[in-house]
């Protein structure tokens, strides 16, 4: 028995108009965000970033401590028990005895200034650590955002086909019940439908994981569903050609805070070596004392100086350790510089490949393919093609649309990684 025209018309309508989104918002609120809005929320709310910023204040407080001079020491003593008068604290005429002294520690060999220099470098390092954390977390946020965006676009493609097949399956089952459609056609539709639903479930699970990470970065309310808004306008454009390779490399040398931190560590180690050598020079105490009647001379006043004799401990271990740390820091800096150069080279090559792949597609491809599917529907209407061929062509559209989204995501992600390794937002702005 032939397929009846009313069913054909119903089928065509379903294909053309069933485009509702499969991944519905959970019970929480739905928030639409641009990448700029997400970054603003991140800078305002991220707890990890806020906590790291406190380290700058802590380091600045250590500079204050380094600038302070040692407090003077003061002591006073009096007789506890007079053995002649058998009295405690005997202050009677001719019997009282007390003494007192004040002393001040003076550091030598510029220890204080060197310690201040070390503390100031510590402030710089705290700032570099903060901005490097900012760079890392911001890259993670943008990666999550773009992953969510392009995968949500792919969900729409799956959703259109799934909703269409669900309604076709219902109509086919009704026709099968009265003998107009074979059970084989019904099972073919069911098989494709279940396969699509399984693929979509995995895709949605990945989106949920990315949304969860983004929620933590911007401190969104748990359960909030995030819909991204992004205008992808790079089709056919050679974005990488707008920035010379040398500029990327120079920017990395100037703006990579992990590299600045490595350079700062070398400076810190150099000054620390000088400080350790200075520690080998003894500090000294100047003291002024008074003793009323404790010695052979009544009302004795003394002026004294005290320092240790560096016969054994001349801070040999500290100096050797500092020298090794200097050499270690230089090697680590060289390694960091080579890592930066390698990061730029590898990611530049990756972006070049995705640029070539993405720009190799005809910008009209998606629209032309969509038009082709509409023509396929018309041909099915007049029975020029069968159901199996129609499902194959419709699934090919899904595969190509999702693949194109993945290529666009890979391209944007590669450009984001190049932003990350240069420490400069050159792309996707």
Helix content: 55-70%
DSSP strand content: 5-15%
How is the CATH topology of the largest domain named? Outer membrane efflux proteins (OEP)
- Terminal-residue CA separation: 59 Å
Q: What is the chain-wise order of helices and strands?
A: HEHHEEEEHHEHHEEHHH
Strands side by side in the biggest sheet: 2-5-7-8
* CATH superfamily annotation of the largest domain: Outer membrane efflux proteins (OEP)
The level-1 CATH class of the largest domain: Mainly Alpha
User: Whole-number radius of gyration?
Assistant: 39 Å
In total, the number of strands is 8
CATH architecture of the largest domain: Up-down Bundle
Dominant shape: elongated
Mean pLDDT: 87
The tally of domains stands at 2
Low-confidence stretches: 1-26
Classification by helices and strands: alpha+beta
| Major sheet attributes | 4 strands, antiparallel
The number of helical segments is: 10
Keywords for this structure?
elongated, two-stranded parallel sheet, 10% strand, 10 helices
Structural commentary:
This protein is of the alpha+beta class. The protein has two domains: 345 residues, Outer membrane efflux proteins (OEP); 67 residues. 65% of the residues lie in helices and 10% in strands. It has ten helices and eight strands. A four-stranded antiparallel β-sheet has the order 2-5-7-8, with no helix packed on it. Helix 4 packs antiparallel against helix 7, helix 6 packs antiparallel against helix 8 and helix 8 runs antiparallel to helix 10. The longest helix has 67 residues. It starts with a helix and ends in a 7-residue tail after the last helix.
